Amino acid sequence: MKLPNLNFKRPGKSSQPPTVAGSPTSATPSDRHTFNDTKCNRKCALALAWPFKGSRPPQRDVIMCRHLSPVVLKYGTDIQLSEATTLRYLAKNTSIPVPKVYAAFQIGVVRYILMEFVNGKPLQLALPTAPPDVRDKWAAQIKSFFTELRAIPHPRPGAICSVDGGPLFDRRFEVGLQSFGPFANEKDFNEYLQCGVHPDQRGRFNDYAESYFEADAKAEIQEMEGIFKEVGHKTCFTHADANTGNFIVKGNKVVAMIDFEMAGFYPEYWDYVTAMMAAEDQEPLWKPEIGKFLQEYPKELKGMKLRLTHFGIIGYRSMYYSPWFND
């Protein structure tokens, strides 16, 4: 099984910056990634979802059935069918333990992924009572998973995109689960991360921004812009959500890596930065473990923290509403 043959602008050449930060600078495929879309699988998925049916379809819901034939159903308007493509590719081409995909399809506006239920305990529940030697064994296995992920060849080297070459998706960044990109290269991706901020050579913003931001804030925004001006990172396959809820363990063995809905091709630092950002407040026990299986990128992490401080989780969407950005 190969990743889709994608149609991108040629990365590496100068591309036009997006008119709105986060809008595509690269072609977007139309593949819907359906798999085993049969009447039987549709009936099974609808039967699982029926007891939880509401007046409107959910954005994202997960149902686990542990009896008879153990399965997991992910369904909703914001489910990414590309996750099913990713899982099938990883199962066929790597040794990373991932759930088997039984079906992936769309009915109306709702997308469904039917997959294997992996028996075990989320690392989130196992970590607090685990002795140091067991934690080290888990970290070593997880490190091997990320090594394999980074070895996956990129169909269009340099482009920042989802596994299918389409828009990126990150529930941590947007209100309303909006997608962003794809981007032809790291330069365009950095434009998104900078939230449209472009101080001039003297470090001066436009008049509105000069009156809006305090001096210390302007200095930090300039620092953030400097960090995200740098290019040259390797673009590699990225899980993008390495939190403790996404690893299933049994004893001292990691039996599954799950939840690839935000996966894609990102700059090499992305897994470390997103894992550390998630662990800052929510997972203090996980934070010291991350450096055991991911290379550290402290400068890029600082840039993301500054971005969150001054532009919040909505980031680029401020461009729609606020006049402090330069044209």
UniProtKB/TrEMBL annotation:
Q: Locations of Polar residues compositional bias? A: 13-29
Pfam families of this UniProt entry? Answer: APH
The membrane spanning regions, by residue number, are: none
Q: Which InterPro entries match?
A: AGP_Transferase (IPR051678), Aminoglycoside_PTrfase (IPR002575), Kinase-like_dom_sf (IPR011009)
Q: Indicate the segments forming the Aminoglycoside phosphotransferase domain, all copies.
A: 83-292
Q: Looking at the record, which segments are called Disordered?
A: 1-34
Q: Which SUPFAM superfamilies match?
A: Protein kinase-like (PK-like)
Record's protein name: Aminoglycoside phosphotransferase domain-containing protein
> Per the UniProt entry, what species is this protein from, by scientific name?
Lachnellula suecica
Q: What is the lineage of its organism?
A: Eukaryota, Fungi, Dikarya, Ascomycota, Pezizomycotina
